[in-house]
User: Fold these one by one.
Assistant:
Number 1:
Amino acid sequence: MSCGDHHDTPCSEVLEQVYLYLDAEQDAIDRDLVRLHLDECAPCLRQYGLEQAVKALVARCCGSDPAPIDLRDRVLVRIREVRLEIEHVEYRAD
């Protein structure tokens, strides 16, 4: 996904880091870069809001037990694969 505008941090990089941002698993510099990008990029902010809603839904449905690390890693890999598939389809449509 890209909004078409220039950003210091590319949209694709921000979207790859959105779960790290949501979970506060980044260092302060990366967190600030993502926050700045979200402040100036409406499409990424919408995607962030969607990811935040999914995370909240999963938390409500699954309780407070954390997911096993290997499950989390598999889900993140699949999310990246789907994003690449979507970007590929959008690119071919242009």
Number 2:
Amino acid sequence: MKKIYLWLAAAVSLWGDAAQTNMAPFGVDTRQYMKISILDQRVLSYDDIDGVHFSEISDAAYSKSKNRLYLVSDEGALFSFSAQFDDKITRLEPSGAVKLMDKNGKKFKNWLHDSEGMTIAQDGKLLISFEGKAKIAHFDTDGQMRKKYEIPAKLSNPKNYRTSNKSLESVAWHPKYGILTAAEWPLKRDGIKEQTVYALSGQEWRFRAEEAANSAVVSMEVMDDGTVLVLERAYSGLTAPVVITLKKVWLGKSKKGVCKTEVLARFSNAEGWHLDNFEGLAKVGKNRYVIVSDDNDNFYQRTLLVYFEAR
């Protein structure tokens, strides 16, 4: 009986707050959808982790060496999970949570803690980008800022963004170009569909945003072949469809200055997909990734974690 109890307790700990779900419309084969294979889908439902409210997840990063999945919220909180990604998600257990702090070990003020993008650099550093007062910084996994990086002048000037809430939504690490970032919407000087990937070294690559209204870059990851996987979210009001797009961007491979792109998957609630506000993307293995949604701290929304393989 004791063994059965322990097994049940472990099962509840493992899956009780990460329940299986399916966001696909009836009859859609998620194992072969467009150019991806959806391997697993979870709803993450935690009230608090280590006393920190779990909500409004804006991005993800995965350390394969530590088997740690990090989730950052736009309220300046960093959550860590012990995670294993095989053909399915075989382990996903919360292991800690901290509030992000500045170099002096103090919590960010409310107007400075809008942490939106996150990635892990080649040397294992955790990099986080911020909206509002746009910045990119290296943080320890205990939440303390160690270094703030210099970003291109056009990105550091808040007047260049369409709004203060449409700045550095994403950050990625490229083995050739270093730290990459992108504004959620193009800068004021650019056309509404003229998106740009920026390297902190000053290099730029332009590509076309998707045609859906207000399609915005909300996360990026670097793929195994050096292309950039971009997560775009289109939302323009309650009466308009939500459209989520995953697409590859070939840096440097351009026609008339615009990079080649390829859509790997597109999801729309107008086509029956049970979507939420997907904002985060992380590489977790060879050709394998997760996307995660922001529940906006709203009872009627969910934190979805979708594990997929790009074919």
Number 3:
Amino acid sequence: MWEVNEGMGWWMVFGGIFWVLFIGALVYLFATAFDRGTGSPQARAETPFDIAKRRLAAGEISHEEYEKIRETLSR
């Protein structure tokens, strides 16, 4: 009449694992959905080479100055 083991023990374990994985997947999806902007070129830090290229393109430095900077940074 009061038999406790009716086969529900394993389902309870798998059910717990399922919910942990499900909530973990939701957290992962929300974290990646709201973190998409950090991979954009504007959000990442510029390297010294990027700054030198930008300054050359803007006409702030000459090609010779750019080559000098590039040579210095590559050492």
